[in-house]
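ERR on first pass: missing label on line 2. Operator R.T. fixed the label and resubmitted. Corrected input:
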Amino acid sequence: MGLEIEFKDLSGYPIGQSNWKQASYTMMKCKSFLGSSVGQKFLVAITGLGLSGFVLTHMLGNLLLFVGPDAYNLYGHKLTSTPLIYIAEVGLIVLFLTHFGLTMKLTRENRASRPVAPNQLPSNVVKRASFASRTMALSGLMILAFAVLHLVTFKFGTYYETTVDGVPMRDLYRLVAEEFQKEWYTAFYLVCMVILFTHLSHGFTAAFQSLGLQSSRNKLLKRSGFIFAVLVGGGFFIQPLYMYFWGGN
Amino acid sequence: MKLHLKIWRQKGPQEAGSFKDYSVDNASEHMSFLEMLDFLNTSLVQKGEEAVQFDHDCREGICGSCSLVINGNPHGPETGTATCQLHMRKFKDGDTIVIEPFRAKAFPVIRDLSVNRTAFDRIMEAGGFCSVNTGNAPEANAILIGKETAEKAMDSAACIGCGACVAACKNASAMLFVSAKVSQLALLPQGNPERGRRVRNMVAQMDQEMFGACSNTGSCEAACPKEIKLENIARLNREMVRAAWVE
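pass 2 clean. output:
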C-alpha cells in the first residue's frame, strides 16, 4: 500500500500512475487529448476522411448513370433495401455532425484569436495560403446548403415507379434525367461541384497533416488532396453534363 | 531614395491605434529596414515628435526580437529573411510601405510596432526543456544519433521564436513555433524521456494563451524567416497521438 498522490500535467493528463490502465484514467487521457486543439483537429480529420469516403462511393455508384436506367435503378434499389442502410445513415449523420460542430467551434475560436482581420496579401507574394485553405469554413457551409437541397430534390423528391426484371422499384433515373433537363439546375449543380472540389483539394491533404501522417519525404500524400478532388469533383461534374445532353431519351 | 511610410501608431495596449503617414526623403538603399526606421526616428526626435517604437536586438537574424508586418508580410516580402536582414534595395524609390505590428490576441501591442510575445515564453516554460541534470558534455560517441535525425533536429532548432508564424496565420496559430520546439527535443535521445508530457503541456499552454488551431494553410511556413517546415506540425500532431496512446 503506497501513498497515492495524483500527478496531473497542465492538460489534466494523469502522469506517473501505476494503475493507469483503469477506466477512469483512460477517460482522463481522452479528455486531455480531445480537449486540446490538436485533438479536436484530429477528430475533424477523421470525420472529414470518413465523409470523403462517402462522397467517393457516392460518385462511383452514380457512374452507373452511364450504363443505363435499369443498372442505376437496380443499384439504388439494392442499396436502400438492405437494413444495413440505416446503420450507414446513422454513421454518416454522426460523422457529419462531429465534423460540422467541431469546425464551427474551432472557426469561432480562431476568429477570436485574430482580433484584426489578417491582411490581404498581395497576389505576387509567396507568403500567402491557397484560396481553398483560407475559405474552408465558407465552402463547407455552402456544401451543407447544397447537401440539404440535394436530399430534398432526390431522396425526398418525386417517387416514380418502374419494374426491372419484374421487381417493382423506384425510378430514380427518371427523376435525375428530369432534374438535369433544367439549365439553371444543371448550372447550379456544376458550381456546387467546383466548391466541393476546392473543399476536398485542401481538406483531404490537410486531414493527413492533422493526423500526423504527412512528411516532406512523402510527396504523393501532399498531392493526394488535389488528385482526390479531381477524381471526385470531376466524376460528379461529368454526370450532370451527361444527363443534360444525353439523359433525356 | 524617397519613401512614403504608413506606420501603425498606438499609445498603449488599451488605446486605439491608427495608421500615420510619414515620408523619408534621403534613405540609402544600403540601409537595413531597421536602420531606415532609426533614420526616421532621428528625424522625428529632431522635430520634437515621438519616435516610433519597434523591437530589435541582434540585427543579425538570430535573436528573434525584430518583428513588423511589412506590406502585409511578416518580416517583409523576402522569404527566409528576418526584418533586420531586409535591406532597402529590395524596395523601389517612391514606394509606399505599410508597417504594422504582429496581430494576434495572444500578442498584445505594447506600443506602436512593439508587441508582447511573452506567451511564447510561457509555452516554453510549460515543457520546452529537458529537466535532467546533464552534467558535463558526454563523450561524443557515447550517444549515437543518425545524421538525418541530427539534421532534422537542427533544422527544427533553427526556430528563433519571433512569432512570424502567428502573424502570418489567419487563425493566429502558434503551431509552427510549438512544433519546432517539440520536434527538436522529441527527435533527440536527451528529450525522449519527457516527450509525452512535454507535448501535452506545451499544447495545453498554447491553447490557454488563446492562439488559434491549425488550419494547415501553410502561411506560417512561407513567412518563417528560418524556413521551419510544416513537417514539424505533422510531427507535433503525431507526438500528441503517441502521448495519448502510449503513455
